[in-house]
Amino acid sequence: YLKTFEGRICSNYKEACQVRGLLENDEHWNATLEEAAFMHSPRMLRDLFAVMLQVCAVSNPNQLWINHQENLSEDILHRVRIQQRNMDLEFSTEILNEALIIIEDKVRSLGGSDLKSVGLPQPNRDSSTIDDVLRERTYNVSERRFLEENEGKMLPDQREIFQKITDSVFQETGGIFFLDAPGGTGKTFLLNLILAMVRESDEIALAVASSGIAATLLTGGRTAHSTFKLPLNITVIATLTCNISRRSGMAKVLKCCKLIIWI
Q1: 173 contact partners, CB below 8 Å, separation of at least 6
Q2: Per the confidence metrics, is the pTM higher than 0.70?
Q3: Which tens digit of pLDDT belongs to each residue from 220-242?
Q4: Which residue, among 118, 120, 123, has the nearest Cα to 55 in the 3D structure?
Q5: In 3-state terms, what secondary structure has residue 69?
Q6: Sheet containing strand 222-223, strands side by side
Q7: Tens digits of residue pLDDT in 178-211
Q8: What count of Cα atoms within 13 Å lies in the side-chain half-sphere of residue 1?
Q9: Can you tell me the distance from the alpha carbon of 54 to that of 61, in angstroms, rounded to the nearest whole number?
Q10: Where in the numbering of this chain does the DNA helicase Pif1-like DEAD-box helicase domain appear (predicted)?
């Protein structure tokens, strides 16, 4: 009875509340994504959408996905057109599936679960053609712009650290660097510049953090336990190792990775 409204039988109680107008309208989230699509890349749009799903209590995530799925997948379509040398290709189920996988990975990196739990279609990972290494090497135009606009703004101390770390990466000398400074002195600014410099050179740079909130400070940031498959409850797990198989895509990423920034 509660799932029925004006002769319509809803599939669940949430849908019944929506048709009755009892839940908050998603128009402001819809407008936010529309505005962001004019100014930001699909990759940044997916990051924004993932944050909405995880922390903003979106009323109807599936409808929001339907409204913006093409904007959220535009770069994937462009990549496939280039790979197949066919600029007439249109959006397909496979392209949208790839976008959903990337969004789900971002939601998980923020501490969430799968997309099905938030009301979106569950992506089919078995049929995905995404190569993890290629995805990590996909350089964002906005990152290049960030590097061009801000590299000259570094203070002498920041430039010294920037040069030392990037030299270590490109000369393959290796090393561990600990960056410590009071709040508000530009640590995050410097770290994002280093990430942009390495990625612009078609190298892999991973940005991880101890929490989902901290991960949002870094470009392409994810939680450490999500990235490295770290065990969360060490009191009940016998083998305290990362759950990454040697043949997995993540294993390839780690082998090719030139820089890991961990905050």
Answers
A1: 167
A2: no
A3: 888 988 888 887 776 666 667 77
A4: 118
A5: helix
A6: 222-223, 204-209, 257-262
A7: 999 888 889 999 999 999 999 888 788 999 998 8
A8: 0
A9: 11
A10: 156-262
